[in-house]
Amino acid sequence: MINAMLIADLHLSGERSATVELFLRFLKDEASRGQRLYILGDLFEVWIGDDDRTDPIPEILTAMSDLAASGTELFMLRGNRDFLIGEEFCRETGCALMQDAAVVNLSGQSTLLMHGDLLATDDLDYQRDRVYLRSDEFRRDFLRKSLEERANLAADMRQQSRDAQSNLPDNIMDVNQETVEQYMRDNGTWQLIHGHTHRPETHDFRMDGRPAKRIVLGDWKESRGPYLVDHGNGLEGNIFR
Description:
Mean pLDDT: 96
């Protein structure tokens, strides 16, 4: 059996039905072959609360629960789009929430898992807004609103984010190498895997005189889902179609 699989940035929503169907097939036909599935954030395009049952959410939750019941362990990091995922979601899916950042063992090597937005420290406005959006104050006030109000607010926030990003140079939204190395040092790892940037690549570099590696997972499209496989003796990138 495969030790683990890792995915990120599926951005599932009712408007991306082909990607939803691809993910459902992935859970049934591929992820079920692994002992663990790690989802490194932004599983959903937007998450406005665990009480939202807008299609296709119920079908996705059921499929994840079925996978957990079959014996595959599910672990998840919150992303910048679905940071409001909470304990009810975990109870329904059998998925365990992980802190961003989390250290796991992959093929015998301590590996740091992150969504990736914490690494984009050159985008000062985003990092400032991130602190507020993850505050208890914002969560409490937002979740008190009706589902309709939350959906409208989330749509406004996404449009504001798109407008802000359109005026930024690409390098501002990418990760900062010094920040990458600091997180790795703080967690005692020489391997980091993350998503968020939608720039799949393996970056080899040296840190403190030792070889280090940063692996960026790709985002899912309608007909292709990139994922990383831990066979126990190394990591391999694959595409699910």
